[in-house]
Fold this sequence. Notes:
By secondary structure, this protein is an alpha/beta fold. The protein folds into two domains: 7-157 and 329-452, FAD/NAD(P)-binding domain, CATH 3.50.50; 164-325, Elongation Factor Tu (Ef-tu), domain 3. The protein contains twelve helices and 16 strands. It has helices at 14-25, 66-76, 80-87, 100-112, 143-153, 198-210, 233-238, 299-306, 331-334, 359-377, 390-400, 426-452, and strands at 7-10, 30-34, 57-60, 89-90, 95-98, 117-121, 133-135, 158-164, 167-169, 179-180, 191-196, 274-280, 287-290, 317-319, 322-328, 347-349. A six-stranded antiparallel β-sheet has the order 10-11-12-13-9-14. A five-stranded parallel β-sheet has the order 6-2-1-7-16, with helices on one face. Helix 1 runs parallel beside helix 10 (359-377), helix 2 (66-76) runs parallel beside helix 10 and helix 2 packs parallel to helix 12.
Amino acid sequence: MMEKQMIHVIGGGLAGTEAAWQIAKAGVPVVLHEMRPLRKSPAHHTEELAELVCSNSFGALSSDRAAGLLHEELRRLGCIIIGTADEHAVPAGGALAVDRGVFSHNLTETLGSHPLIELRRSEVQEIPTEGVVVLTTGPLTSPALTEDLQRFTGMEYFSFFDAASPIVTGESINREIAFFASRYDKGEAAYLNCPMNREQYLHFWQELCAAEKAELKDFEQETAKFFEGCLPIEEMARRGEDTMRYGPLKPVGLFDARKGDFRAPENQSQRPYAVVQLRQEDKAGQLWNMVGFQTNLRWGEQKRVFRLIPGLEEAEFVRMGVMHRNTFLNAPQLLHSTLQFKKRPTLLAAGQLVGTEGYTAAAAGGWLAGTNAARLVLGLEPVTLPTTMMMGALFDFISSASPKHFQPMPPNFGILPELGKRIKNKQERYGMYRDRALGDLDSWSRGLRASAA
């Protein structure tokens, strides 16, 4: 059995926070390295652990949705990220969204007070060569560590460009125009919706296409590659007049109850041509995120163009949209599904660095990498998860996909093994995926506990 040595986790985002917690929970001492505030990143605004830099939403809450299933798997596995998200949730219809400030502050205090966790505020420029190490530096890995990681892997990184949406104050939204509703009335009506007629939409689309973008500064513009799951709104607009209306501005299923039931045949003519949705950022409803409006427009242009949206004419922006580089490993060439490097099994990685997309996937990677790091120190075999689970399927995918065309992958039912029979009804099919996943998780967990007894 290996000596009960200290594990080093590099990066205090969602994955790193989760990894450090799982290591300490296993009774192993851990140092969590976070370079903020000594060295700032292009996207972070605070020095808190697990800061949410893009949206405040973890995705769909229902367990018959891909993100929701991953939430439930993590709840059953004792994930501190999801547990804290549940504790500090804000109304968001069918989504799990949090008061981001309280969420991150709570996690920072919880980890900071754990006797087995040492939080070091310093930049790590090289991968430690000894002991068990977990890399969770995310898409904004510092240049020095990026170079060292490139030397270690002996291969080029892939990189894409990611963007964050603006946030406006609730009191600056015109409530005579914006209306509360969730799509198809699912969940609590927790979204504010700004409807557009055809003339308003076309004017907005034309101005958005013509708006001036910010320079990418440190990045090579000719090599910029947008990740389709987080496409800047101006890039989406340039792809065609109706692209936004089939994306984040789709009017389907959104009805203003103040004007009667749009679903009634006699009211179909009143249906909006496009709808901009705003999601609540904090429990008090003082801050609202422009859903799907990730952008790299100049800040002055953002204010000018986004105030063309009905209901946002007087919008007060508390955070403008920003754009930054994301870096991720070619995981199929480098990692096992245990999140260990093939070249060095005592080095693990998790989060967006390994090519998983989304907050919940980062937490899942942190759980697995932290669990396996602790098991290595304790002299136990690393675990793999059943591929019928969303977690297991996700890590199996990133470790076995085609390296040539590897791109970040969010949780989705398409990566799960097919069911034994064909089910046409999508909701029923997803429900069966969920039941199988959670059943296999419970069986796997019982087996794991029995082996450790």
